[in-house]
Design a protein that fits this description.
The chain is of the alpha+beta class and 222 residues long. The protein has five helices and eleven strands.
């Protein structure tokens, strides 16, 4: 089976293991176990330890009486921009491809992912690339396409690592200057390209029958 190693997939699918692997290597959000939370003095994020994207994530407000049953982790709520970085990795080295904007809204006390756009530019892009690359290279065995979710605040904070194809790929493959699928396969086999160029930007949003993608050819690359 082509792709990341079993150990790498296991590490990325369990946020506790992910944060343990990244501790001291990249900026991380303050994270707590349920038994550490006696009251809620400030806004907190509650998420499943093995959740993906925004599934099962909810917000605790100061004074809430939390229900913390289940396999959960609790994190500080950080005000910032939700983004992701798409990368290629050969198991040892990682190449950042694009910074991607995430459209996430609050639906009551829960978070909902609506879509986003890729690639985008940002004043913190290089910082985001550096943190995402360091995060991926901190977990041996990640190969192929990898997505790193970040919060851009005073610095980029790692939220999670996805050892799989993520939503921005559906847009990136349409604007890549070359066959992105082939480049993913090459990276799995150990061969990273020097760079990947994009000839436009793509926006994607949830529709009734899946993601709706629109391409804008105005983007001229980083």
């Amino acid at each position: 089976i082509l792709g990341s190693s079993g150990d790498a997939v296991r590490t990325c699918s369990d946020k506790r293991l992910t944060y343990r692997a990244l501790d001291g290597r990249v900026p991380l959000i303050g994270t707590y176990e349920p038994e550490e939370i006696v009251d809620v003095p400030s806004r907190l994020i509650v998420k499943p330890a093995d959740g993906v994207a925004c599934q099962g994530i909810r917000i605790l407000e100061p004074g809430d009486v939390p229900d913390l049953s289940g396999d959960l982790i609790i994190q500080d709520f950080i005000e910032g921009e939700s983004v992701s970085v798409s990368l290629l990795s050969n198991g040892e080295r990682a190449l950042p491809l694009s910074l991607n904007r995430q459209d996430i809204i609050m639906a009551g006390s829960e978070l909902e992912y609506r879509g986003g756009s890729a690639p985008v530019d940002h004043e913190m892009r290089e910082d985001a690339f550096t943190v995402a690359r360091r995060a991926v290279e901190s977990i041996p065995g990640l190969r192929g396409y990898v997505g790193v979710d970040l919060i851009l605040a005073d610095e980029p904070y790692v939220v999670e690592i996805n050892s799989r194809i993520t939503t921005p790929y559906i847009g990136l493959r349409m604007v890549a200057d070359g066959n992105l699928g082939h480049l993913i396969l090459e990276s799995v086999l150990g061969r990273l390209p020097d760079a990947v160029k994009f000839n436009g930007t793509a926006s994607f949003r949830k529709g009734t029958d899946g993601m709706v993608v629109e391409v804008n050819e105005g983007f001229r690359g980083y």
